[in-house]
Structure formats: C-alpha cells, structure tokens
Design brief:
The complex is a heterodimer of chains A (651) and B (253). With 651 residues, chain A is α+β, with helices and mostly antiparallel strands. Chain A has a domain at 80-92 and 327-481 and 576-636 and 647-651. Chain A is built from 18 helices and 19 strands. In chain A, the strands form eight sheets. A five-stranded mixed beta sheet of chain A has the order 4-9-8-16-17, with no helix packed on it. In chain A, 48% of the residues are buried. Chain B is mainly β. Chain B has two domains: 29-130, Immunoglobulin-like, CATH 2.60.40; 132-246, Immunoglobulin-like (Sandwich), CATH 2.60.40.2060. Chain B is built from one helix and 17 strands. The longest helix of chain B is centred in the N-terminal third of the chain and has 16 residues, at 2-17. Classes of the chains: A alpha+beta (651), B mainly beta (253). Chain A binds chain B through residues 231-238, 359-361, 572, 576, 578-580, 611, 619-620, 628-629, 638-641, 649-651, and chain B through 61-64, 93-95, 107-110, 184, 187-190, 207-209, 213, 233, 235-236.
C-alpha cells in the first residue's frame, strides 16, 4: 500500500511538472535555416534574398525559360520551326494572364525585414536596398497592369485572419497603378546610386528606374490618348479598372519626356556606336557586354551557371552544335518588308514579281508568274535599312565568317517561259540531292518536304539578332548574351512617340521646345545610328505610322510588338484572323537559283513569296494570327467568394 | 467448390450494394429552341462553335467557371442538356450585328441583361432576333475556275437608325454542309463593301486559299456555299445567309 502511494505521488508530481515546465519548449532555434536577423545582418545575405526576387521577374521571351521559343514565334515577327512548331498556335484571353501576389508579398516582406532587422547595414546602403525593393515592386505591378489591367495595390504584408474575405480588395483603377509606379520611381530614383564605379546593368539603378518610368508613362499616355478607340471596342470599364480617361494623356506623356530628359542628364547612357559597318554595329549592340552604354537593365547569363539556350535554338542548321536544335526561329517576310529603303526612306515590300504581288504555295511545283531576276541572291535586299542585315540572315549573308546556304531549290526554265521547281525530297538528301549535277537545296533551307522538315529554315530567313558569335555558344546553353529589358534606344523611341502624341493632342511645346521637333530629334537619333545622316526623317515624313514601323524594326524580337499593338488598340485590326490578310497571315520569301543552260538567266536568282505553313495546328497549317477584343486584357483571376473582383471587359 | 460459390455470391452482393452515393445522374433536362426573325422564319446564324451567343450561368459558392455556353447552329437552332436547377440566361459579352428581344446590352464591353430560368423539366425557348441588315437573293455559281457568290444586302426597316454600316462581305465554300469560319473544311474570302446593295465574292477553285486547297486530294465535285456581311465595329460576329449546294465544280483548271 505504501509503495502504491509513493508511486501515485511520483506519477502525480511528474504530470504536474510536465504541465508546468518551461513554456517556450516549443520554440526552438531552426538549425536548418537563417533567422531574419541573421540574413539581414550583412550584404551577402540581403543580396541572396534579392537575387531570388530578381529571378522571379517575369519575361516570357528570356533566353532560358522557353526552350522551344514558342512565345517568340507567337506573333508576326517569326514562325517556329522546331519539331513542336504546332504549339506556337493561336492563343486566347488567358494568354499572359499574370497575377503574382506571391512575389508582391515577398517584396513587401523584404521591405519590412529591411526596416526591422537590417540594423548593422550602413544607412546609405540600406537606402539603396529599400529603393531596389520598391523598384522591383513597381516593375511587378507594371508587368501585371500591362496584362490584366488595374490590380489592387498592396504595399504591406497581410497576416492570418479567420475570415479571408476581410482581406478582399477591389481592383485599383488602371490609372492608379500607373500613378503608383511613377510616384514610387520619383521617390526612389536618387536612392538608387550604386557604389561601384560603373553603373550596374543587372541590378536596379537610377537608369533602370527612369527607363521603367519612361515605358510606363508612354503606355499610360497612349491608353489615355486612345480612350475613344478603347470605348468603341468596349475596353473601358466604368470603374476605371481598365481604360484611362482622355484628360490624363498629356500629363503622362510629359512624364515620359521628363524620364528621358532625366536619363540624359545622367550623362551615362548612349547609343552603341562602335563599328563603321552599321549592320554589324547593330548586331553587336546585343552581343557586346563590355562598355556597352546602351544597355540599361538586363538579365545576365554566363552560359555555365545560368544557361542561355537562345543561340542554340536560333543558329543556322549548317552551324548548329546540338542535334534537334537550330533554325527554330524563322523571321517572316512580314517583318523583313518593314525595313525601309535607305536612300528614299520609303517602306516598300520586297520586289519578287514584275507587275503585281503574288502569293504561292510551298508545295506548288510549277509557276507561270513573271519573276524579277536578280544576279546575286542578296541583290533583292540591297539598299535596305542596315538593321535588316543586323537582325536577319538571308540568302547571300554570312555568319561567323561562313556563308549561309539558303536556297529553296532550282527553278528550271521551260521552253514556254514557265518555271518548274526542283528541290530535295527529304532532309537527309539535302547534301546530295542534285539536278543535272547541280545541288538543289541549300543546307540551311528553306525546306519543306518529306516527313521531317524541322530545325531548318522554313521562311527563307534566319535570325542574327541575339545569336552569339563566340565559339561553343551554340551548344548546351553555353551562350552568355544578356537578355535586354531596357535599352537607351527604346527610351528615345518612347520619348519620340510621347512628343508626337502631345503634338497630335495640340500641345505645341514642352519645356520651351516644339513637340514635333522634339519628336523628330529623338527618332532621328535612333535612325542616324541605324542608317547614317541620310536616314533621318524630315518633319513632313514623321507620322504616327513611322513610329509604329520604327518600333517594329528597331525593337524586333524584344517583346515590344504585342504590347505596342495592344496599347495602340489596333492589335485586333492588324491580327484579325482573315486568310486574305497581309498582316495576320505570315509569309516567307524563298530563293531559287535558275537553271537554264545557254540562256542569259542561267545561274541567276528569283524569289517566290510563299504562305508560311508552320503556324496554327497540324490540321490547319498557315492559320492567320488571331487577336480579338477579349485579349486586350488577359483573364483576371476570379477568386471564389470575393465579390469585389471585376471581370475584364469583353470577357 | 462450395467455398468458391460462396465467394462469388459475396462479391456479387458487394457489387450490387456498393456506394450509390458517389454516382449521380448526368444532365437530363433539355433546354432547346431557335432564333427566329420577326416574320417567324429561322434566323441563320454563324454555327462556328467558337462564336458563342447564349450562355447559362449558375450562381453560388465556387461557381466561378463562367457558365455553360450553348452552341447555336447554322439554322439558328440550339439544344443543350443541363442539370435541373436555377440558371441565369444571358448573351456572351460581345457586340452583335443584331438585337435579341428582351436581352439588352448594358454598354460596350459590359455584357447583357440576364433572364432567370428555373429548369425543372424540359424547356423550349425561342428568341426573336432583329438583324440590322437583311441578306436576300443569295446565289452561287461556278464561273472560270472560280466560285462566284452574289447576294443583296439591305438595311432592315425594323433595325434602329443607329445601326452601323456594312464594311465587308464574306464568302464561304465548304466540302460539307457545315459551312462556317470555324471548320477546317471551309475556305473564305472577303470583299470590301461600303453600302447596302448587292455584292459579289469570288473564291478561286485552284491555288492559294482555294476550294481544292481545303485538303490534299479534294476531289469533291460539289460545294456548299454561303455569304455573310460584317458591320463596322462588330468583329467576329457577322450576319449570315442560308447555305446552298452547287454541283459540277471542275477538278482541273
């Protein structure tokens, strides 16, 4: 009995002791992670946190993410010629719907931790870190507003609540998001001074903030400028979540000009002008990383830790380094036709036919068309804007000191004056297939026959822009070309457009300068670099169509065209899915060598304009691009239960 | 042996009694009807499944899918199986070249009125449609390696005075009697027209975007045709004619 009592007492005491013991028993130091106070105690910790935020910024066309370049070949600049080209098909209203409040929360959290825990960081450095975080946040809001319109502006983290509906926010106006971006940038731009002697291109800087301001203000200004057009297409919600009132246009456009002026005042950025050969100069602008003062903000690749697959995907078949890659991004004739004639500054399509344009099928083996005969394959491209040769490779081009072998086949001249076209019947046979001892199809295409016809040019063109020329860059993601987000020429073109829109809006002067002259000055800086003094526009030539064309060629393959056509509210007109359309149907230009022994045209060249088939689906090849009114604003996520969210117009 | 019988019996019984509550009946209520004109004739509609018109939505927690789109066919008929319940019927958020009686627009880009329908049993519902323009005297013929389509377009006297003007006429040829811009077996071509009156669309039989290009080895000697007109500021949704069949389409140029 006694023993029992003792045992009971011991058990009872033990229970009491367990219940009463140390109340921070559950609070343990996490030995696998760092505490915020540790992480924010030094530059290294903060930099590694920020690196994560940078890596989560969204670029659809960067050089690592999209391994088959579907997005780059989504619109009218190029078609895809990978084995999976059919995936680069038309898209709907969900395209580019982007709603990354996870990232916004992490940036807000980062800002709060900087405030709370970065006690040992010197004040001026801390200022930079805070400004950097706010730049990133403005960038993410800009990415969202250009895709889904006005979004709730959240600037602090939210804690747990029992009823999630208490956290529901309604959409801010589209204009409020743009106002937020510009106010943030104006607030932080002077804190973004970096310590190193050279201005950084891969981290937030005053330049990148001003470039973001320039782009954001141009977008907001052109949305306001096009208010009536938006209204006719049903794109303005009464709440203001999409659409910006007309009255705000001038203020935004002036801010865009202000950003360009502030950038010029830094006296750091300049157009890249190092080679006398203007085509070479333009292509090197995207490859040269040392002392390239045109790049304002970019995503860097080293090809070792950060792979860059772009060169591997885009390089010509004859120079490819990896099986099942290369020649995947094929520029279209639609783009090539936009390069002006250098001497006359005229926008004139390539001249393949005498007496009227024609469209042919790739599969047609005979033709009675009246072709213009060229002595050399490159002659048809002669006298064009040098940026053409800096952007695309065509028949007669060389790349890495090797000729590009673009030839669709032989055009055999028949006695009755018509042509019969001969080309290789399978991709394996290209190197050997010949007609009367003469090789028919070039190693780089253009080619479409047999059951396998990918990783070779489809359009008659290949890409030069962004394609790395360094040895070994064509294999396994080993290119180190940076993905440029902001560059100086874009800021100049933004300013040129803003000034012209101000002029069209009846604002005659800005800071004492005539707006039309200002616009001309800005656009001509870019054009002079592109084509020399003779390529400058005069006042009577400067129309809005010139702005459209200039942005199309100068900023090609830089993910601008989709946003430009959207904010000008003309995307649904240019890309109306109509099989007769010159702008929504994509075309190529196929070079043929003429075979006519003993006749004067023998060995000369002709070109056929063909409808490109590698777009759409396997059952509907050559489908026109489709952009409808639902796509001006991508799908806004509808959260169950949140009654405050509003669907986007036309959805 | 006896044991096997026993096992078989147990297993069969288990099959018969097993969980009835995680099976439910499929949609069973038929919601049907037609689009008709003021005179009671069928209203010819696009028929392209991508050009939805009628949509029914259920409201409630978790119902964020945007509703059920009801496909309307070339002759303006629709038929949809639905679960019994309360629905809100509305039109898809697009501008249309016609007005539907009792369903008014809430403004550009903002959608349309909705009608509450209580679906307990099969429901037939016709919609009176007032097109802005009338397409009459549609003819199709083969001429010089082309299929030539002619039609008259006149403003509907019942349409509002503010109806937009016509901008394009479109012709469609197909190898099957399903003729619209959404099927792969249709080729279409457009002609610019600026006003009411008659218009002509010529579709080549050979070459780019031609009848014979619809698919490889298209040896059909008959074609189904129709035309449509597009109004200014109303993309994708057009006014359509009836579908007619033509014979003796040449096989070689």
């Amino acid at each position: 009995m006694k023993l029992n009592n003792i045992i009971t007492t011991i058990i009872f005491s033990a229970i009491i002791l367990t219940l009463a013991s140390c109340d921070d028993w559950l609070t343990q130091k996490d030995l696998t992670g760092m505490s915020p106070s540790d992480a924010y105690s030094n530059d290294q910790g903060i930099t590694s946190i920020v690196a994560n935020l940078y890596s989560r910024l969204r670029y659809e066309q960067d050089f690592a993410l999209d391994n088959e370049s579907y997005d780059l070949t989504r619109w009218d600049e190029a078609v895809n010629n990978s084995q999976y080209w059919a995936f680069a098909s038309n898209v709907g209203k969900d395209y580019r719907s982007y709603y990354d409040y996870g990232l916004i929360r992490d940036i807000n959290l980062h800002l709060e931790e900087l405030e709370k825990n970065a006690k040992s960081i010197p004040a001026d450095k801390l200022k930079y870190y805070k400004a950097e975080a706010r730049y990133l946040r403005a960038f993410v809001y800009f990415t969202m507003v250009t895709r889904i319109g006005g979004v709730p502006l959240i600037t602090e983290t939210m804690g747990y609540v029992d009823d999630p509906l208490l956290l529901a926010k309604k959409r801010n106006k589209e204009s409020e998001v743009y106002d937020f971006i510009v106010n943030e940038i104006d607030d932080i731009k002077n804190d973004l001074t970096v310590y190193s002697s050279t201005i950084t291109q891969t981290r937030a800087s005053k330049g990148s903030a001003l470039a973001l301001k320039s782009r954001a203000m141009l977008y907001a200004g052109s949305l306001a400028f096009n208010y009536d057009k938006s209204a006719a297409k049903g794109l303005n919600l009464p709440s203001g979540a999409t659409g910006i009132e007309k009255s705000k246009a001038n203020a935004y456009l002036e801010k865009c000009l202000e950003a360009c002026q502030e950038l010029d005042d830094m006296q750091h950025y300049a157009l890249y002008q190092k080679d006398a050969d203007l085509s070479l100069n333009y292509s090197k602008l995207f490859l040269n990383k040392t002392d390239n003062r045109e790049i304002i903000f970019c995503k860097a690749y080293d090809g070792v830790n950060m792979f860059n697959y772009f060169t591997q995907r885009a390089i010509a078949r004859s120079q490819t380094g990896v099986a099942k890659s290369g020649a995947q991004i094929n520029p279209t004739l639609n783009l090539v036709n936009s390069y002006e004639l250098l001497a006359t500054r005229e926008i004139k399509p390539m001249q393949a036919y005498a007496g009227g344009d024609a469209i042919e099928l790739m599969t047609a083996k005979t033709s009675d068309k009246n072709y213009i005969i060229y002595d050399k394959p490159e002659d048809i491209f002669a006298g064009r804007d040098p940026r053409l040769a800096g952007t695309v490779l065509h028949a007669g081009s060389t790349f890495k000191n090797k000729p590009i072998d673009l030839q669709a086949g032989l055009a055999v001249l028949e006695d009755d004056g018509t042509y019969t076209f001969k080309s290789a019947q399978s991709i394996e046979a290209i190197s050997t297939a010949n007609y009367e001892g003469i090789k028919m199809t070039g190693e780089d295409g253009p080619f479409r026959a047999g059951s396998s016809f990918w990783y070779i040019s489809h359009s008659g063109f290949l890409l030069r822009k962004y394609v790395d020329t360094s040895t070994g860059s064509e294999t396994k993601g080993n290119s180190s070309v940076p993905y440029i987000v902001f560059r100086y020429a874009e800021v100049l073109l933004n300013a040129a457009e803003a000034a012209l829109l101000l002029d069209m809006n009846g604002v005659g002067s800005y800071n004492g300068k005539d707006t039309k002259t200002l616009s001309l000055d800005y656009i001509n800086k870019v054009r002079k670099r592109a084509g020399g003094d003779m390529f400058k526009l005069n006042a009577s030539e400067l129309t809005f169509d010139r702005i459209i064309n200039e942005r199309k060629v100068e900023l090609s393959f830089e993910d601008h065209r989709y946003y430009d056509l959207k904010r000008w509210r003309i995307a649904d007109e240019i890309w109306e899915p109509n099989r007769d359309s010159e702008t929504a149907v994509l075309y190529g230009l196929w070079p043929y060598k003429i075979y006519a022994p003993g006749k004067p045209v023998d060995g000369k060249w002709l070109y056929r304009k063909v409808k490109l088939e590698h777009r759409g689906s396997a059952t509907d090849m050559g489908m026109p691009i489709s952009f409808d009114r639902t796509m001006y604003y991508s799908t806004y996520p509808m959260n169950a239960g949140n009654l405050l969210v509003e669907m986007n117009p036309n959805h | 042996m006896k044991q096997i019988n026993y096992i078989v019996f147990i297993v069969s019984v288990m099959f018969l009694i097993s969980c009835e509550y995680d099976n439910y009946d499929g949609p069973s209520v038929k919601f049907t009807g037609s689009l008709i004109t003021a005179s009671g004739d069928p209203f010819f509609y696009d028929g392209n499944p991508g050009r939805g018109l009628i949509k029914v939505i259920q409201k409630g927690f978790g119902k964020t899918d945007g509703g059920t789109n009801v496909r309307v066919d070339e002759r303006g008929n629709y038929a949809q199986l639905l679960f019994p319940g309360e629905y809100w019927l509305t039109l898809e958020n697009n501008p249309y070249p016609f007005e539907v009686e009792n369903i008014n627009s809430l403004g550009a880009g903002l959608g349309y009125d909705s009608i509450k329908i209580d679906l307990k049993s099969d429901l037939k519902m016709d919609f009176k449609v007032t097109p802005y323009y009338l397409l009459t005297d549609f003819t199709a013929k083969v001429e010089n390696n082309n299929i030539v389509l002619n039609c008259n377009v006149t403003k509907n006297p019942d349409a509002p005075a503010t109806a937009p003007k016509v901008t394009f006429g479109r012709g469609y040829v197909s190898t099957t009697s399903i003729v619209n811009g959404g099927t792969l077996l249709t080729r279409t071509k457009r002609a610019v027209i600026t006003d009411s009156g008659s218009f002509e669309v010529v579709i080549p039989i050979f070459g780019v975007n031609s009848f014979r290009e619809i698919y490889t080895n298209n040896f059909k000697e008959s074609a189904y045709c129709r035309v449509s007109v597009e109004l200014e500021g109303i993309p994708s949704y057009y006014l359509f004619s009836n579908i007619t069949k033509i014979e003796n389409v040449p096989l070689t140029p």
